Amino acid sequence: MAVKLFNVFRILIAGALVTACGQAQTAKSFEVASIRPTAPDESRTQLSIGAGRFTAEGVTVKTLIEQAWSVAEFQIVAAPGWLGSERFDINAKAEGINETNIEQMIPMLRGLLTDRFHLRFHREPREMQAFALTVSKAGPKLTPAAPPVDGKPGQGLRRLGRGVLQAQNVTTSTLAEMLSRQLERTVSDKTGLNGTFDVDLKWTPDSGESPGAEGPGPSIYAALQEQLGLRLESVNTTVEMLVIDSVEKPSEN
Predict the structure, then answer these.
(1) Of 148, 172, 178, 176, which Cα lies nearest the Cα of 160?
(2) Is this prediction's pTM over 0.70?
(3) Under 8 Å CB-to-CB from 40, ≥6 apart: which residues?
(4) Tell me: the pLDDT tens digits for 221-231?
């Protein structure tokens, strides 16, 4: 079954995206890759990986960079405006891969961005405000994930949208990563909680832009404490930013 990622409700891929290199690994590449601008009347946005094939519909290059190097949008800087506004359809096939294998696909996606979009970047540490995810004084209210079926843990749904965060069978570290993308700031897991959990968090968008701020409904900060027994503490940290040096629109096939 294909693994699908939606732009509004992002599915985070953990563990397979970490690299020590600042540039794409081009040793592995797609055998065939078609890239075309998305039709103006097409509103769907979708990524899918399965059976040696990578398909994207209506995605921006910025979204591809986020997925390929496991960075949040706020970590991509010095990018031209079109990087986050113009959308593309991509259909790529990898030779010799007959099953879903994210670990093999990620270097190929990086190579695609380097070869076809001529992406070049460097990493640069910057001091900025961040958050630490901790347990509130009242204690955690997290729901433990269901036990594995036939020895296999559940591959639950993960959704992150406007006023909603839902995830199944996730660690607090993964929850912190999802919160980081929502808040556009680094969130580090300092809960000390082990195991996996099912999370259903709802809040009122734009209700309080910082911890302690009040609004017409529960802010994400208040919702975390009330619904999950967790809290966000402001901290200063060094965040590694991905600085775009050059990138080009691909020529049509």
Answers:
(1) 178
(2) no
(3) none
(4) 999 999 999 99
